[in-house]
């Protein structure tokens, strides 16, 4: 579920000036979904290092993923979504915060790409055996995402209005 949502968010980058409302809406939709992913991954990591048999039997990710990619992915995810939320709350469409949002995206895209490439086999396996608890959590995160995105839609639309004025064209 996360990958298609991220792909939709990425598609808005093709013309972000005209698709800023969609970009912000999808970004806010993603917040609870990404939080669930961070929490579940953190839980698996803690369970592995605490010696929980289920997680120890699966074994750790490759050392490069654990020491380089994962920390970069988590940190850039937090900065990317944090700056995105801040831009929406502060109603900003240009400036230092936008630059930080863009820079964190560059780091995130590289780390996410590497992470995804290493996880494709596990992703395919998980599609064949969805866990009931995981499905319930994912469903709740989607409901929370739709709710959050809908509640923040007026702010996203205001951002779109700001960028169209700043860029010198009207998106409507």
Describe this structure in words.
This protein is mainly α and 172 residues long. The protein has one domain (2-159). Helices cover 83% and strands 0% of the residues. The chain is built from seven helices and no strands. It has helices spanning 2-12, 20-49, 53-58, 63-90, 96-128, 132-151, 153-167. Helix 2 (20-49) runs antiparallel to helix 4 (63-90) and helix 2 (20-49) crosses helix 7 (153-167).
Brief digest:
By secondary structure, this protein is mainly alpha-helical. The chain is 83% helix and 0% strand. The protein has seven helices and no strands.
List the helices and strands and how they pair.
Blueprint: H1 2-12, H2 20-49, H3 53-58, H4 63-90, H5 96-128, H6 132-151, H7 153-167
Helix pairs in contact: 1-2, 2-4, 2-6, 2-7, 4-5
For the structure shown, list the relevant keywords.
mainly alpha, 83% helix, 172 residues
Oligomer: single chain
Instruction: Round the Cα radius of gyration to an integer and report it.
Output: 18 Å
In sequence order, what are the helices and strands, one letter per element? HHHHHHH
Number of domains: 1
Number of helices: 7
Number of beta-strand segments: 0
Helix content: over 70%
Shape: globular
Mean pLDDT: 89
- Contiguous uncertain segments of 5+ residues: none
Distance between the termini: 31 Å
Strand content: under 5%
Question: Main sheet?
Answer: none
